[in-house]
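Structure (tokenized):
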């Protein structure tokens, strides 16, 4: 232990005492704990997030999610050790990690240079007018319908509320995707990860599916 105050002479003023205290390592401040995203007190999380330049943050996140975001931004994550998020901006791996924080995932993507080329591209799959450095994404994110919402043919007037579906999850996904990219790249995204069942799907007539039902999309087409 180093205590610089023992070398001070008689008549030392308050400023010198304060400087000596700052140069001593026996201050009752748990620096290691405060700087650890997994151990710092809850009240220190916003400060630690600002210290590590966290750029995706929502106040209604759980405490565990906030700690993990700080840890990944600082490169101290137990899940992705020595892999700071900022170093992955502009990459598919970085985008996936950002989307995980907003409960979304990539279903399919078409990225440059996947342009339509005769003899090498697939009709209906490769875009004809796909611009350079523009990636197209199909992203799955769930929306929750409000409780007691009005439904035509199912709800009684005056009993159900005319409440729209909360689109905040979509806004958060767009925010995460904007942060995850680099300025030189562009992207387009669709959230239509469900589509109506068609005859071409060859759905078995065994009662497992209903007419007018929906199924997950697995690709951009």
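Design, position by position:
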């Amino acid at each position: 232990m180093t205590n610089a105050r023992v070398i001070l002479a008689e008549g030392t003023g308050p400023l010198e005492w304060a400087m000596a205290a700052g140069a001593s390592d026996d201050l009752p401040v748990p620096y290691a704990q405060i700087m650890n995203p997994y151990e710092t007190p809850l009240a220190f999380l916003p400060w630690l997030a600002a210290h590590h330049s966290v750029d995706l943050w929502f106040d209604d996140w759980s405490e565990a999610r906030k700690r993990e975001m700080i840890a990944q931004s600082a490169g101290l994550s137990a899940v992705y050790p020595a892999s700071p998020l900022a170093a992955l901006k502009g990459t598919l791996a970085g985008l996936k990690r950002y989307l995980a924080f907003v409960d979304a995932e990539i279903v399919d993507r078409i990225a440059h240079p996947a342009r339509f080329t005769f003899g090498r591209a697939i009709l209906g799959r490769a875009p004809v007018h796909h611009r350079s450095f523009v990636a197209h994404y199909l992203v799955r994110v769930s929306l929750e319908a409000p409780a007691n919402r009005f439904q035509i043919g199912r709800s009684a007037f005056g009993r159900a509320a005319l409440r729209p579906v909360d689109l905040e999850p979509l806004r958060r996904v767009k925010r995460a995707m904007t942060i995850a990219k680099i300025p030189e790249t562009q992207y387009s995204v669709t959230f239509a990860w469900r589509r109506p069942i068609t005859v071409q799907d060859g759905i078995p007539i065994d009662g497992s599916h209903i007419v007018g039902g929906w199924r997950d999309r697995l690709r951009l087409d």
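Reviewer-requested clarification: The first helix runs from residue 14 to 22. Residues 89-119+131-220 form one domain.
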